[in-house]
Amino acid sequence: MMAAEGISAEALTRMARLSGTDPVVVLSGQRAEVLGMTPDARSVVLISAAEPLSVNHITRLSDPLNPEKPDAGLTVRSTDIPDWAQGAVALAKLSRLLPAAVVAPTTAEMADCFHVSAADVLSYRPIAARSLKRVAEARVPLADAEDARVVAFRPTDGGIEHLAIIVGHPDRDHPVLTRLHSECFTGDLLGSLRCDCGDQLRGAISQLSKSGGGVVLYLAQEGRGIGLINKLRAYELQDAGFDTLDANHQLGFDDDERTYLPAAEMLRLLGISQVRLLTNNPAKVEGLARHGVQVTERVPHVFPSNGHNARYLRTKATRSGHLF
Description:
The chain has two domains: 2-107, no CATH class; 125-221 and 258-320, 3-Layer(aba) Sandwich (Rossmann fold), CATH 3.40.50. α13 links the parallel β11 (274-278) and β12. The strands form two sheets. It has a seven-stranded mixed sheet, with helices on both faces. The chain is built from 14 helices and twelve strands. The longest helix is centred in the middle third of the chain and has 14 residues, at 197-210. The chain is globular and about 65 Å long. The protein is an alpha+beta fold.
């Protein structure tokens, strides 16, 4: 398989030659629904054509920023989808690429090629989360919390790193004031006005310090789990009129691609089983509870809007159920 966004004419020719058949395109259900190919956004679809698919065909199918529409006459399969198709989309998402892939079957001549089972790809995220280990820790005085430490977590075999910012000395015998914060390069570092992430991060650290201590889990889940590049693509779509959720769908992603299993595992490793959760998002409360963390209280975490993020915050309230 190859990611659709990296395909070239040479790669298509090579795949067809090696497999002895024409490659097919696999799209996420969200992208297929946007294109009107299936009414069910949960399914993955396989797309083929009477003639071999070209790079232009594939780009039209996978890239919402391409103004040209997909060609008519495509064959769309949305039932009895094989595991390898599900695995291809999952692998693209893990790689922070558009969730679309070009796939061709292997042959006996390719037996010495490196193989990864679809089951292994589909199970990677929970396995990586459950294998998180504390790998480093340091005192890091912060502007709003001089008594702070950063603890780094990483899967046993390497991979994405998550951080815990521990402010003060939280009492683990009582529910710990906790914030789950998905990394946001544009908001946290650049001070972007398109979101409220920077305000939420700095506000959480300040509130933890004033209340005697707590934890911010800084999760490597940029753009609600789609990655920075795809978030920038979503911004371009938002500038064209889509809201934050519909922009995700245009790209082929769900409303929210995050999982809160890493957060639950980090809390377990920190010896925290009960939290007062600093959030406006009920899904975070439900996500932690699903993975064994008791949320004794949801603590509101609201900041003023501005002319650039008012629509974004309104969408979170009306379509994602955030409580402001």
